[in-house]
Design goal:
The complex is a heterodimer of chains A (about 425) and B (about 300).
Chain A (H helix, E strand, L loop, with lengths): L1 E11 L4 E10 L2 E6 L8 E4 L4 E4 L1 E6 L12 H10 L2 E6 L10 H14 L3 E6 L13 H7 L3 E3 L8 H11 L6 E3 L4 H4 L4 E2 L2 H6 L3 E2 L1 H18 L3 E3 L5 H13 L3 E5 L1 H5 L21 H13 L4 E2 L8 H4 L16 H10 L6 H15 L15 E11 L18 E11 L2 E5 L2 E2 L2
Parallel strand pairs in A: 1-4, 1-5, 6-7, 7-8, 8-9, 9-10, 10-13, 11-12, 13-14, 14-15
Antiparallel strand pairs in A: 1-2, 2-3, 5-16, 16-17, 17-18, 18-19
Helix pairs in contact in A: 2-3, 4-7, 7-8
Chain B lengths: L14 H15 L16 E6 L4 H13 L3 E6 L11 H10 L4 E6 L4 H8 L3 E7 L5 H15 L6 E5 L6 H12 L3 E5 L9 H4 L2 E3 L2 H4 L5 E4 L15 H8 L3 H6 L5 E3 L12 H4 L6 H19 L10
Parallel strand pairs in B: 1-2, 1-3, 3-4, 5-6, 5-8, 6-7, 8-9
Helix pairs in contact in B: 1-5, 1-12, 2-12, 3-4, 5-6, 5-12
The chains are: A alpha/beta (about 425), B alpha/beta (about 300).
The structure holds zinc ion.
């Protein structure tokens, strides 16, 4: 069974292509990329006015299964991923039970094979139960297929524990993904500490709660030689630390979420709990620094930190509501609206920050629009209008910080391993 | 009449409206001196006191205010455990909305809760104190007390001393004073200051003795040990030494200056007993003004002249 995607703009800097080309898919694999390809008997798909990218990857999502299936499941979360144009996700281990053993890693992989529609790569916990006290069985989890390790949800508070973890993990050549937050500084904070926390009477989290741990973890990565990926950075100061570390040649990568790129604390005035997240929305100057860092390469990739929560959980008082916003379904449209359509980022840049860099940062297999690679392809309609309404989401949860936005561009069609998972903007599996 | 349907924060009021509330309170205060302390102004209107946080003092003040205006007052003491039972704040608001009341007074442990209620309900909402955010009727009664004691608000220099960062009283008093042409100065150790006092419009000073001679009012805040995540100063003894109001400090203030406190007091910490009970303390006057100011706020929110004369 063959598929011929005709006349789209095919962009992939890793494959060295950017032009109006055809892509031939045979048996789930890319068979050729070129001009005026012929394939008798193949299904022909007109891709005029569309942009074809190698399948996008989101390396920071919370799929909530096992344990919190009322928020999201591997089935619903991977459909949300497909809806947003992603063909692969790496999922964080803060499930119930915590994904801190080979058997739980195995469960996630098997469940994804049974019910998922995009590729799922489990991230294992660094410490048992993510309690920050005792190493989890990292080797067993690697053997079962964990791609990286993280105690995301919390920073590892003890520097000594972090050092042991980095020293141990480095022999598997997998990255430690750090959630940087010194809880003794963050205290009971729920928003960025500053003008907004003062005006709204909400306890604040200083930027330094993040930055001191970013500095610590960079120092420990240098000491141990462990690969370090910094999750959801949110402050200008954190990026400056990364910039300097990269200049010294430290093996550090980092990600920024769409909400930290496109929202700041000034939007918080209504106490809307869908805007409550950790790290919190920061100042407009921090937001601008995030965009600048993304454009100058300090930020390696965009990751959504997709964090689904049920309506009744988010309908609480701001201080009591759980942290997080969903993100899988709006990320690509936001990037197109704010960065591509405005001429700040080209499609090759989108490939870098949403496909190649995230995959290399989190140890996911490479994808290219090149013969011999699996046919994981995201077809973008850059002119499509997306009105973000609660009914538009495919995720089981609706806690999006971008509800009400009118965005430009979306994934119109998505192939995973040569099979359609999205057609004309609708999930079809 | 007020231009806004709610009194959520001081931002909901203009300086003209603040003056209107204070003037109205003055005429209503007369009712409180009568033998029969009741006028028919809000007869038939329903006012709900929705308290998620125990506060006998504030709740009683609102309750008396509603009764004196002949409104039907209902006390709804929602325990914080409603959430634990699975009922959210919005559920509570929807339930109350279905009972069609005219005004809800909300006291809540967390900032923003009154705003969430107002989004769900059709009636007016008065923020009776939310978290460490605002407590606008407290600020109004403080302005009332200052105006009564000192004859004016404009040009006053008001020192707000102590636990500013945990104080919803300071959160609304600072902008209220600015609005009325007075100068708020917040005084205390840096560990008890908000992150950005400038956005509230306050001057900051760490040395109480330095500013005392320039103040018309020393407004002492209760140290809220229960809200601090860690002890913000070495000891109560040292706090009293640096920031506690005592007879010596009172003597250092201008002779017309007054001492205020929103209560309840930690005697011996932020205020010594002799100052609390001195003739220059107007702390009991604040409590008394509270009823009249809350009557005025309710009266003006619920249509004012439409429902009859003020007194
Ligand atoms: Zn995190």
């Amino acid at each position: 069974m063959a598929l011929l995607l005709k006349g789209g703009r095919v962009v992939d800097p890793a494959a060295g292509v950017d032009g109006v080309l055809d892509v031939l898919v045979e048996n789930g694999v890319i068979a050729g990329v070129g001009e005026d390809l012929e394939a008798p008997g193949a299904e022909v798909v007109d891709c005029a006015e569309k942009v074809l990218l190698p399948g996008l990857a989101d390396i920071h999502v919370h799929l909530r299964e096992p344990g919190q299936e009322y928020k999201e499941t591997i089935a619903s979360g991977t459909r949300a991923a497909a809806h947003g144009g992603f063909t692969a996700v790496a999922c964080m281990p803060n499930t119930a039970p915590v994904c801190d053993s080979g058997s739980t890693v195995r469960f996630v992989i098997e469940r994804a094979e049974e019910t998922g529609v995009v590729r799922v790569y489990p991230i294992g916990a660094v410490t048992a139960g993510q309690a920050g006290e005792q190493l989890a069985e990292v080797g067993d989890m690697v053997a079962e297929g964990a791609v990286a390790f993280s105690d995301d949800g919390h920073g590892i508070q003890s520097a000594g524990m972090t050092r042991v973890a980095m020293d141990y993990i480095k022999r598997f050549d997998v990255p430690l993904i750090a959630h940087c937050e010194d809880e003794s500084l963050a205290g009971g904070g729920v928003v960025n500490e500053g003008a907004v926390s003062t005006r709204m009477g909400l306890p604040g989290i200083p930027a330094e709660a993040e930055e001191t741990m970013v500095a610590r973890d960079i120092a420990l990565a240098e000491l141990t030689g462990c690969r370090l990926h910094l999750a959801h950075l949110s402050t200008a100061g954190s990026l400056e630390l990364v910039r300097r570390a990269k200049a010294r040649g430290v093996a550090v990568t980092c990600e920024v979420t769409p909400h930290h790129l496109f929202l700041d604390e000034d939007s918080l005035v209504t106490y809307d709990t869908d805007l409550k997240m950790n790290p919190p929305l920061r100042t407009p100057a921090d937001r601008e620094a995030m965009v600048e860092g993304l454009l100058d390469g300090t930020v390696d990739c965009i990751a959504t930190d997709h964090a689904p929560h049920a309506v009744h959980e988010k309908e609480l008082e701001f201080e009591l509501a759980p942290n997080g916003t969903t993100g899988l379904e709006t990320a690509l449209s936001l990037v197109n609206t704010h960065l591509v359509a405005t001429g700040k980022l080209d499609w090759a840049g989108v490939c870098r920050v949403m496909c190649h860099n995230p995959r290399s940062a989190a140890n996911l297999p490479e994808m290219r629009l090149e013969a011999g690679f699996p046919a994981d392809i995201t077809v973008v309609d850059p002119e499509a209008r997306v009105d973000v309404t609660p009914g538009w989401f495919v995720s089981r949860s609706r806690n999006s910080a971008f509800t009400g936005a009118s965005l430009l561009g979306r994934a119109s069609d998505v192939l995973v391993g040569g099979s359609w998972v999205v057609r004309k903007g609708k999930v079809v599996v | 009449m007020l231009s806004n349907r709610h009194i959520m924060t001081m931002d909901d009021l203009t300086s003209n409206e603040v003056t209107l509330i204070l003037d109205t309170a003055e005429s209503l205060a007369e009712v409180n001196q009568r033998r029969i302390k009741k006028v028919p102004t809000l007869r038939g209107r329903t006012i709900v006191n929705l308290f998620f946080e125990p506060s006998t003092r504030t709740r009683t003040s609102f309750e008396i205010a509603a009764k004196r205006l002949s409104a039907d007052g209902i006390n709804f003491t929602a325990s914080a455990s409603a959430t634990a039972k699975g009922e959210t704040l919005r559920d509570t608001a929807r339930t109350l909305a279905a009972m069609s009341c005219d005004l809800v007074v909300v006291r809540h442990k967390y900032a923003g809760a009154p705003q969430m209620l107002a989004e769900v309900m059709d009636c007016s909402v008065i923020n009776g104190g939310d978290g460490i955010h605002q407590h606008p009727t407290q600020a109004l009664l403080d302005l009332y007390t200052m105006r009564q004691s000192l004859g004016r608000l404009e040009g006053l220099r008001v020192g707000i001393v102590g636990d500013v960062c945990h104080s919803r009283v300071a959160g609304s008093l600072v902008p209220a004073l600015r609005m009325m042409g007075a100068t708020p100065v917040i005084i205390g150790p840096p560990t008890l200051m908000p992150a950005r006092p400038d956005v509230l419009g306050a001057e900051v000073c760490y040395d109480l003795d330095e500013v005392l001679p320039t103040l018309d009012v020393a407004y002492l805040l209760r140290v809220q040990f229960e809200r601090a995540t860690r002890m913000p100063f070495p000891s109560n003894r040292e706090y009293a030494m640096l920031y506690g109001m005592n007879a010596d400090r009172l003597a250092a203030m201008p002779s017309h200056a007054i001492v205020m406190h929103p209560g309840p007091m930690n005697r011996g910490v932020e205020i010594s007993a002799d100052v609390a009970d001195s003739p220059r303390s107007v702390i009991l006057g604040q409590v008394e003004s509270g009823v009249a100011v809350r009557m005025a706020a309710m009266y003006l929110l619920l249509g004012g002249a439409e429902s009859g004369a003020a007194a």
